[in-house]
Each structure stands twice: as C-alpha cells, then as structure tokens.
Amino acid sequence: MRKDFWKNIPVELLTNEEWEAICDGCGKCCLIKLQNNAQSIPFYTSLACQFLNTKTCKCKVYNSRKKKKHDCLILTPDNLKQVVKWLPNSCAYRLVNEKKDLPNWHHLNSKDCDSVHITGNSIQNLAINELFVAEEDYENFIAES
Q1: CA 48 to chain centroid
Q2: Strand 128-129 relative to strand 43-48: parallel, antiparallel, unpaired?
Q3: If DSSP codes are grouped into helix, strand and coil, which group holds residue 114?
Q4: Which residues of 72-105 are buried (b: 16+ CB within 10 A; e: fewer)?
Q5: DSSP 8-state class, residue 1
Q6: Is residue 6 within 8 Å of residue 76, measured between CB atoms?
Q7: Which of 126, 125, 105, 124 is nearest to 116 (CA)?
Q8: Tens-binned pLDDT, residue by residue, of the chain (145 aa)
Q9: CA separation, residue 21 to residues 26, 58, 93, 118, 134 (Å)
Q10: Of 48, 88, 118, 131, which cross-links 127 as Cys (Cβ 3.0–4.6 Å)?
Q11: Are 11 and 77 in contact (CB under 8 A)?
C-alpha cells in the first residue's frame, strides 16, 4: 500500500486493498440503526447484525453479506458521500471523507489492529445480537449519543 494513502489520495483512486484498510474494525457500522423518517439522522442501538462476531467485530459472512442480509449497506468509494450520515462520527471512512486525520488508535497509525479494541473504540463484547430481541422492541435499545 502507498504511504499515507488515506491522507493523499482521493477515495475514488484507492486500490481495493487500500479502501478495505481504511476500516478501523470497530463494528459500529453493523449496529442496527433506527430512523424516524427518511430525512432524520439515524439512532444507533446496542443491537448488532446477526452476522457480526461481537468478539472480533468482523462480519461472519463478509463476502456474501448482501445476499444474506438484503439491507446490509456495502460501503464503496462511489456511495460514501451519499451514505456518510449512516456512519458513526468516529468511522475512519467518515473522517477520510471529511478530510480529517485518523485517530492515533487507528491501525494505520498504531500499526496494531487490536488498538481499536484496547482503547475502547469498538463494540467488542458490548453489543447484543439482533436475533435475541423482537423487532418491535428495538427502540428500547437506542444507545445514548
């Protein structure tokens, strides 16, 4: 990968490896989000997609996630600007889109993929699998902002 690519290269020109490397591995994007209407900002819940491994914060079906979960949002350089409001404020893709620096705990800075967990910036072991909660009860799991 190119040195400091996330700082110097527009997302549209990143290689697939560079694009994937931007992900900080926090798992927050896999939390269930609720929205009052199409224009409102989404509310995050403490419920995780059924396919998220909450110990590793990795998708168990990453390569087939859209087939397994039709509403899974697959982030790409082409749709980043349209879906950025669905990403948490700490999301590396959101920060890159906003031309902000990545935090020190991000693995591209720390050189340690576990630093997102060690520093408490992931949902590791904190989220509840969505399968354990009835959909009509999701609003009871809205996380405080």
Answers
A1: 11
A2: parallel
A3: coil
A4: beebebeebeebeebbbebbbbbbbbeeeebbeb
A5: -
A6: no
A7: 105
A8: 899 999 999 999 999 999 999 999 999 999 999 988 776 778 889 999 999 999 999 999 999 999 999 889 899 999 999 988 889 899 999 999 999 999 999 999 999 999 999 999 999 999 999 999 999 999 999 987 5
A9: 13, 13, 10, 18, 34
A10: 48
A11: yes
Cα–Cα distance between 31 and 48 in angstroms, integer?
4
User: Which amino acid, one-letter code, is at 27?
Assistant: G
In this prediction the pTM is 0.88
Residues in the chain, overall count:
145
Question: Residue 118 has which token pair?
Answer: 């060690």
Contact yes or no for 108/21 (Cβ under 8 A): yes
